[in-house]
Design brief:
Blueprint lengths: L24 E3 L15 E4 L5 E3 L4 E9 L2 E8 L7 E6 L1 E3 L6 E2 L4 E5 L10 E8 L2 E3 L7 H4 L41
Antiparallel strand pairs: 1-2, 2-10, 3-9, 4-5, 4-8, 5-6, 6-10, 7-9, 10-11
Length: about 190
């Protein structure tokens, strides 16, 4: 096992959070300075027992079973190089088996009621390439990771309502559609 340095080569292939829509991160990624040094080799996401756990990206289940008394599911992500990226989720009651193909957002199990190292109910989400631990949040594209503001799109074919001038307003000209605004012709 080697500590991760730079995740610049991690493709943002994630299409879903492992739990919920945008779960609270209880503990973030803390890369160890050495292979066996202190750190946190993943992120802990708030999730009560029974919460569905989803594959963040398409792949193949490489492991579904128990490790040190905890339910663990690992998924090798499709098209992420050699060795492929591998996500891990724990504690999980698996609903998939080794060698199952999964799609992004597919339920792979539920958060188990016991086996968590968190002080609050959570799922630990990890990411590895070979033996190197990486920050799993780097799998998520910005639109999924940060959300972002809502954007209003134009409604085509609906006339713009006219309004009369208010106090101190100049008269309002009708809006032309289909091109840049030009001053009215004399």
């Amino acid at each position: 096992m080697t500590p991760a340095g730079e995740e610049a080569g991690t493709p943002a292939v994630g299409r879903a959070w492992p739990v919920g829509v945008r779960p609270r991160v209880l503990r973030g990624w803390e890369p160890p300075a050495t292979a066996y040094g202190r750190g946190h080799r993943g992120v802990d996401l708030a999730a009560p027992p029974g919460t569905p756990v989803r594959a963040v990206a398409a792949g193949r289940v490489s492991f579904a079973g128990r490790v040190a008394g905890r339910g663990v599911v690992s998924v090798e992500l499709t098209g992420t190089g050699d060795p492929p990226l591998r996500t891990t989720y724990e504690p999980v009651r698996a609903s998939v088996a080794e060698d199952d193909e999964v799609t992004a957002g597919e339920v792979i199990g539920t958060v188990a009621p016991t086996g968590s190292h968190c002080t609050a109910p959570c799922v630990h989400w990890g990411l590895l390439r070979g033996d190197a631990y990486l920050d799993p949040l780097t799998l998520l594209p910005p639109w999924l990771l940060h959300g972002g503001p809502s954007r209003l799109l134009p409604v085509l074919g609906v006339p713009v309502p006219e309004r009369g001038p208010g106090p101190g307003d100049a008269p309002v000209s009708p809006v032309r559609r289909g091109g840049p605004s030009r001053p009215p012709l004399p």
